[in-house]
Amino acid sequence: MNKPKASWLPHLGFIAVYVLWGVNLTSMKIGGREWDPILFNGLRYACIVPILWAYTVVYQRSKKQSFRMAPKDLLWIILLSLASTVGMEVVLSYALQYSSTSNGAVLGRGFMPIVTAIIALILMEIRLTWRMAAGIPLAFVGVVIIVSGKGLHFGADTLRGDVLLLMRSFIGAFYLIYMNRLVAKYPLPLLITLEMTFGALWLLPYVLFNINGAYLGSISPAGWWSLAYTSILATLAAFTLHNWSLGKLGPFKSSVYGYLLPVTAAVAGVLILKEQITLAEYLGGAAVLIAMYLVQADRMQQAKRMTAPRPEEGV
C-alpha cells in the first residue's frame, strides 16, 4: 500500500533540490558582489567536508559497511568530482564572464537534458516515448520564454561564453550518467563525502594562493550568510538529496528536473529581491511544468502498473 507514495519521493526530492538551488542563485547574486567565484566555491566545499566525514564514519560503522571501493570506481569518483567542481561550477563562473545568465539558463542548463537523452538513447538506457519527445522541446521552449526578456542574446560577443556553457551541458550529462551507476553500488554518504573531498582538493591550491585575512575581513555579514547557505543547504543537503533521487529515477529523468531552475529562481527573486514576474515568465513557467508532467508521467504510470493488483489476485 505504501509503494505508490514511495514512487513520488524521488520526484519530490528533485523539486526540493531545485527550490534550494533556485534560492541559491539569489543567494549567490548577493554573495557574488563580494566573493571571488572560485574562492567562494573552494571555501564552500572545504567547509562541509569535515561534517560529511563525521557523518559518514558514524553511518558506515552503524551499518557495519566497509569504506573500501574498487580502484576503478574510486577513479570514477575522482573524475566525477573534477567534472562537478571544475567542469561545472568553475566553468559556469568563467562562462558567465563572457556571456549572460540568460544564455546560461538556455545553454548551460537547457541543453543538459537533451544531451543526456541522446547519450542515454545511444547507450540504450532509456526508450524514447511520445511524452519525452514532446516534453523535452516544450520545456526547452519554456526556458527560452522565461529568459527572453532578460538579456538572451547570441553573437560574436558571447561566443566564448556560449561554447563554455555548451561544454558544461555535456559535462553535466556525463556526471549524471556515471554517478547514477555508482549510486547503485555504494552507500550514498560515502559517495557524497568522497566527491566533495576530492572537489575540495581540486580547488585547494587556488584557495591557499588567494586567501588572506584582509580579504576575509572585507566580506560583509550578507556575504558570509551567502556562503553558509550555499555550503550547508545548496551543497550539503541538496547534493545528498539530488544523488539519492538520481539513484531512484536514473540520469535522463533526473536531468529534466533542471528545467525547474529558472522557475524556482524567478520565484526566489520575487520573494527575496522583490523582483517582478513578467507575463512571459508566467507562460514559460507553465510550459515547463506541463513538460515536467509529460516527461515524468511514464515512470509514474509504470509504478502504478507495478503496484496494481493482478486479476488473479482479486479472485
From TrEMBL:
The chain crosses the membrane at residues 12-31, 43-62, 74-94, 106-123, 130-147, 159-178, 190-211, 223-244, 256-273, 279-296. It is a multi-pass membrane protein. Residues 12-147, 160-295 form the EamA domain. It is found in: Endomembrane system. It comes from the Bacteria. Keywords: Membrane, Transmembrane, Transmembrane helix. PANTHER family: EAMA DOMAIN-CONTAINING PROTEIN, INNER MEMBRANE TRANSPORTER. Belongs to the EamA transporter family. This is DMT family transporter.
